[in-house]
């Protein structure tokens, strides 16, 4: 029967004009036609969308709408972040014309897609980013398709990508550096921190494209080639190989390419004395065709750090090498760079094997060291003169005979052939003989011979200026200065300059140092200073000692130490911000053991929440300012000057409307804890719940305001200024709850008067100066009584004297 009934129903429906626009099954069972996109489902299974007894299934929606399913699965985009069910927005069975996917572009909140529109993006039209059309959709085929647009910058701005990054930076989106306000100006990129290359000087001023040409952002040879990665090497082979490594900053600076002051010390040959006064081309001879003003084309190679490279071998030493003195043509062993004619004190008796005494003293060197007596070795460069003779192999055997002709050469006596000349003769004169051969015991004098002193000839000390001297004056200095020149003049403090050399030096070897008690000086060594080697503080100066080995003198006088100036040895990390007295904070137990009381030693006391703040949160690095300590480049931290105002570190949420003196309201215990700044006008009742702007409006200042209510409530004053002290009657808790005791006035309220409104007596808002007589308010009542025959008045408005005092007859409880 059911089948027959259903068949009849179908026939009946067909006979009544049911079109194929809506499926029969849908028309019979559904609440209405499906939308255009779902119409193909009308003639099929309802369970394509519906679950039996469970309504609309989310999974079935996703089975058809796969692009949206991708967003939901990834929890991204509008549908992926929306937790509502599909049917809550996209209903159906409302007809073919119904469209549940229309988006109102004016009211749509784009932040719900997970991508908030900010900056320039907020000004764009939807179609400028969402370029796809709904061409494959059943309706609105020319409208925007919002599904599938990516949030990455390159999805829209790929043609604007001038970087074309590869490698490390390719994984970053544009917003890693660029902001949304302005593509070119809103840039957040720290070249030193992000690219590990600090931009200094002129580098900080040029455009990015000046270095990053053709989208180049990687220089694999930056560490090895340095500047040559961008700059051409116009020196080429005109510099030594060790200066061809691209480290141009050895000579050039970042501020200007021109060299204003060149430190020749970097070449390994520092210029001192006369050398520091001459021109470069005086040593570095150039081709005549080279322009002397074009120093960049100069050739600086080929010179050796040897005096003979520029100076002639005056002594004709050549390449001769002494076993004791080494290579003799080392000019600085005797000469100075200050003046060529000034020589160090050369002691032939000490520095050579041959003691100069007697008649030998005062002879010209060339008398013995005769040029032409020695042939040049093969390969020796020409010096213009023949080489002199400075070495005699048989000096120890024959001694005098190397220069003097022996008169005993043909003597038949074997005595003269077996003995040396100095066994009989002395240098004081050829005719003076040493017949007795007795020796003198020097240890019995005030100066015992020890160490090297016991090895030298007598004349080395007792012959001065061709005169023999046997009495010396400086006993207090242990006679050192009688023979040895005080090399430390002006090098030590006067207290130590007058001491005997033997307090520090040994007679075994002059280089040997005896222990020295530094606590005798004005700077006792304690803690970390006691661990430091001497030469770390006492560094070489440019002055040389006048005796061999002609080392540079070290610095021992520090006049600035009297001012406790640690900068004498230490680099000032603060670059003068905190003065020169480092001991105010630091001590010699360890440089990092800082003792600084911010409350006593600065203008800004640390209290409240500031106690927990780290120093570096307030004291931050100064931009583009560095100091080099132990070959490590460190940023300089700002300590002074810092303005001791809150806005120096904290943002002002009030934008300057309340001034810069934040502590008038806020406390250091916590920013949200405010002081009782409203103490001159205690807020209570309704006032306590008001916003500040409701009273302090129109940029009205916060201080100096009147405490009178009338300042704000003038429009509420029904008394028209006759009762200026509102607080006498009214309360802040409730304005209409008046606390006024009429019994204290000349007219206490009783009876019916207690139920009246104030305005019934105080008409025209007059509250002061009113007459307390009844007739003042009840004159009309008196006239009415007269008209009734009670005779209160003689004429309208004129009360008879007998009736002036109403309370003689009437009372306030019942008239």
Description of the structure:
The chain is largely without helices or strands and 815 residues long. Helices cover 14% and strands 7% of the residues. Strand 11 and strand 12 form a beta hairpin. Helix 3 crosses helix 4. The longest helix has 14 residues, at 2-15.
Quick description:
By secondary structure, the protein is low in regular secondary structure.
Tags for this model:
815 residues; little secondary structure; two-stranded antiparallel sheet; two-stranded antiparallel ribbon; 21 helices; 18 strands
User: Which range best describes the helical content: under 10%, 10-25%, 25-40%, 40-55%, 55-70% or over 70%?
Assistant: 10-25%
Residue stretches low in confidence (pLDDT < 50, at least 5 long) are 1-20
Q: Report the sheet with the most strands, covering strand number, pairing sense and barrel closure.
A: 2 strands, antiparallel
Overall strand count: 18
Percent range for β-strand residues: 5-15%
Order of adjacent strands in the largest pleated sheet: 1-2
Structural class: little secondary structure
- Amino- and carboxy-terminal Cα gap: 97 Å
Overall average pLDDT? 81
What gross morphology would you assign?
elongated
Q: What is the number of helical segments per DSSP (H or I, 4+ residues)?
A: 21
The radius of gyration computed from the alpha-carbon positions, rounded to a whole number of angstroms, is: 55 Å
